[in-house]
TrEMBL record:
One GO cellular component term: periplasmic space
Residues that hold heme c 1 according to the record: H49, C63, C66, H67
Annotated protein name in UniProt: Periplasmic nitrate reductase, electron transfer subunit
Major site of localization recorded for this protein: periplasm
Source organism: Enterovibrio coralii
Function text: Electron transfer subunit of the periplasmic nitrate reductase complex NapAB. Receives electrons from the membrane-anchored tetraheme c-type NapC protein and transfers these to NapA subunit, thus allowing electron flow between membrane and periplasm. Essential for periplasmic nitrate reduction with nitrate as the terminal electron acceptor.
Gene3D superfamilies: Flavocytochrome C3, Chain A
Post-translational modification (record): Binds 2 heme C groups per subunit.
Family to which this protein belongs: Belongs to the NapB family.
Length: 129
């Protein structure tokens, strides 16, 4: 019995690599908005504001200017999770762990957009309500 090959289509669609394709419109992220509900346990919260111009690199992390434990009370921003101050051996650190320092690896700006890929995702349990 032979299995039928699954055809995988690029987000470019049928546009060849040598051709220019039409870029999708860049989604507008409002300056501030209500936070989206989480969809599953331990989901990294999405960012409810625009982050254009933010720098997160080895020398600077703009996110920590509002979210660090020393300033969040003054800014009204949510505090960085205590888990971000633990190394991989669960030792508590005085600074954000290097493995949690680059916020945009897990946290992304939220926007109401169309699905890029069709899916049947359903939030877990009472999440997403």
């Amino acid at each position: 019995m032979t299995e039928e090959a699954v055809v995988v289509e690029s987000l470019r669609g049928s546009t060849g690599i040598e051709e220019s394709n039409v870029l999708p419109e860049i989604k507008s992220v409002p300056k501030n908005q209500e936070r989206f509900a989480l969809n599953y346990v331990n989901q990294p919260p999405m960012i409810p504001h625009n982050i254009d111009g933010y720098q997160v690199n080895q020398a600077n992390n703009t996110c920590l200017e509002c979210h660090d434990v020393d300033v969040y009370r003054k800014t009204g921003a949510p505090r960085v999770s205590p888990t971000h101050f633990m190394d991989r051996d669960n030792r508590v650190l005085t600074e954000v762990s290097a493995r949690r320092y680059f916020c945009l690896q897990c946290h992304v700006p939220q926007a109401q957009t169309e699905e890029l890929v069709e899916n049947e995702f359903v939030p877990a349990g009472k999440f997403g309500q």
